[in-house]
Amino acid sequence: MFRYLKAAFLAAPEIAGLGRLPANVILLAGFLILGFGHPGFWLLGLALEASYLYTLTTSARFRKLVDADQLQLSESAAASQRLALIAKLAPASRGRLARIEEKCAKVLQLERDAQAEDFTIEGNREALRKLEWLYLKVLVAQQNLHALGGDGSQNELRRKVGVLQSEVGADRLSRSLRESKQATLRILEQRLANLERREQTLAEIDSDLTRIEAQVDLAMDNAGMRGKSEAISANINLVSQLLDESIYGESGSSIAALDRTFRPETQ
Q1: Same domain? 10 vs 95
Q2: How far apart are CA 155 and CA 192, in angstroms?
Q3: Residue 214 covered by a domain
Q4: How many CA atoms lie within 13 A of 14 on its CB side?
Q5: Is residue 66 part of a domain?
Q6: Residue 1 and residue 237: Cα distance in Å, rounded?
Q7: Which residue among 21, 38, 131, 161 has the highest number of C-beta atoms inside a 10 angstrom radius?
Q8: How far is it, in rounded angstroms, from Cα 60 to Cα 109?
């Protein structure tokens, strides 16, 4: 409710020749000034404002407009974070992602050319969007694993884990400091586990990338066959999806946030 009240209070309609003006705020300021001459204007302004806010915030149309604006802002923020992830990829990985995105766009164009049903095109657009997101996630995981290095990194992580294990076992630590070190220890242990199975994980990730590419290629084949427009499935249980979030490194928080936007809700 608060966001509807805020939107109503700060509503700025388009006024010809003046652009967008916060009309409600301006009118309230006017009643405030007039009230110094006669207090009755304050009561009148308060009554009109209460009626205005009630009418607007209980309007289904106004609520839909506010929700649409909020959704647009959320999608814009998600798009910005996604672009930031792409910018961190190596050129070769960005090229692979660009090729997948081009194919997905081609699938939708072929379906439009074949005059497929609108609900089919929209459903496939969402499925392809999710496949693109899965592909980007796997590319980020792949790059982070490559960056982790080999035996030198494993030895350093083992050393840090050993030091933290000793510190956590010490009696002199305060409760808050112990909990902080335990949390750090868990993260390092997860990273070490990923490193120790690095080669196997990289092979699994490469297989996942190939599987997504094959799914998109199949969709393009089906779309290219006139009269054979089929629903595209984003129901892919990737091996890399079972890995801990630490595999994404410093991009983990962005990945987790974007998952709520792009991840399939149902499998």
Answers
A1: no
A2: 9
A3: yes
A4: 1
A5: no
A6: 39
A7: 131
A8: 35
